[in-house]
Structure formats: C-alpha cells, structure tokens
Amino acid sequence: MSRKQLVTLLGAACASLVVSACIPSLPDAAPYPDSGSVPAAERQTLEAFVSDAMPRYMSIIEEVAMESGGVIADVGHSETQPCRSEVNGYEIRAVRFNLPLIEYEDMRRIVGEAAQRYGYLYTSDPVPRDERHMRSVGLSDQDGNSLLFDHFENDVIFVQFSSGCLPSLRSRDIHGQFALPTTQEMFPHLTVVDAYDADKQKNPLIFRHVAADSEQQSGS
Predict the structure, then answer these.
(1) Which residues pair with 11 in a beta bridge?
(2) In this predicted model, which residue has the larger pLDDT, 96 or 18?
(3) pLDDT digits over 55-94, tens only?
(4) In this structure, are residues 138 and 9 in contact, taking their beta carbons and an 8 Å threshold?
(5) Which single residue of 72, 149, 190, 210 could bond 204 by disulfide (Cβ 3.0 to 4.6 Å)?
(6) Are strands 191-193 and 71-74 parallel, antiparallel or unpaired?
(7) CA distance 160 to 143
(8) What are the C-alpha distances in Å from 143 to residues 37, 42, 207?
C-alpha cells in the first residue's frame, strides 16, 4: 500500500486508535505526500535517521517476524530519492518485506505495543478487504515516517516502510542514491531468504498456502 493509501487509512480508522489522537485530515497533493507535522528542515538528518530512528522501525518488523518463526524475505528495491521540496534532503522508498503469516490479532497486538513504547501513531483496519481478505495495521510519526503491515489471509504478511523528507549532509543530486543497510544488516537475528526462486515460484518458508501444499504432497 502506498503512502497516499496509508494516510487515507490513518484518517479513516481514527476510532480504532489505541494511542495518541487522530492526525487532522491532510491535503491530498503530490504523490507520496509527506504527512509529517514537523517541518522537513527541522527533522533529524538522513544520516542520523538511518543509524538512530530507522532501527526502531525495523525492530518492530523483527518482533512480528520472530513470532512467525524468525524468517524474512526482502521483496523491495530499497532506495532514496530527492525530496519534492526545497530542502536539501532525501526520502527513503521501497523498503518492502514479506513475513510468514501469523494471526492478525497477534500482529495487531505486537504492533500496537510497539506504538505505545515508541509514541507512534497507530491504527488498524481489521475488516477484511478484497478477495485476498487483506487487513492492515499502520504506524506513523510526526516526521512523516510510516510503517504498514498488510495481512493477507492464508497467504503472507506484506510490510512496507517509507520515510518523510529528511535533510541530508550530502550534496543533493538528481539520482538520489544513498546506501541503506542491507536486509542482513537490519535483521541480524532473522533468517533472510528469497521470496521467490529463479522460476518465480513462491518460497514455502514465507507463503503459507505453498507450505501447506508442500506438506500435503509429502504426506500423500
């Protein structure tokens, strides 16, 4: 789900908040609007964020992953891009992972407790949507950072992290590349696997229905 969709989700699900108050409705302007209330120039630098604040978000992902067996798959192409403002800074995009499925209520509890611990805005959307019965839990903060967990019934958990505009010590360039930590570096206590093999087949360590099919075949 995109940042735009997460902003919509956070605004629509205020009744389900367990901490903090609802953020007022935000203008729906450019793609990936920065939903942070703190001016970009006053935020932590990108360099400090990657070593300080980002690990807290990754620790929440790790908690959910540990509940599901300690396995994670990197399915994104982590990157940075120049901010869409006049600030000399960058936004982190496309940090995406797959986790093996756990019960939705367990996922919601873990993420909700983390929100209370770190003071993040938390919301959940427990009503199943579309044919895959997707339900979501989201986190965000005043600097425009967001973490979203999409729970697909009988399949997988899809996780996406994005940052707001973060000022940078480096010169702004058109390519906007910044070396983010690898998945192994972000999650040293987890087993990192590929979500798909060379033939684009789903990994049974990650996808529940594939694992179930494998068990049925081996038992037949």
Answers:
(1) none
(2) 96
(3) 999 999 999 999 999 999 999 777 888 888 788 899 998 7
(4) yes
(5) 210
(6) parallel
(7) 17
(8) 6, 9, 33
CA–CA separation, 108 vs 171, rounded Å?
Answer: 40
The token duo for 3 is: 């940042």
The closest alpha carbon to 59, from 47, 72, 48, belongs to: 72
Q: Give the residue-averaged pLDDT of 35-50.
A: 92
Q: Which amino acid is at 179?
A: A
The model's pLDDT over 130-139, given as tens digits with 9 standing for 90+, comes to 888 999 999 9
pLDDT of residue 178: 78
Contacts of 48 (CB under 8 A, 6+ apart): none
- Asked whether 80 and 180 are in contact (CB, 8 A), the reply is yes
Query: Which two tokens mark 169?
Result: 């010590």
Look at strands 95-99 and 156-162 and give their pairing: antiparallel
**Cβ-based neighbour number of residue 97 at 10 Å:** 26
Give yes or no for a contact between 57 and 147, defined as CB atoms under 8 angstroms apart: yes
The values of phi and psi at residue 203, to 5°, are: -80, 120
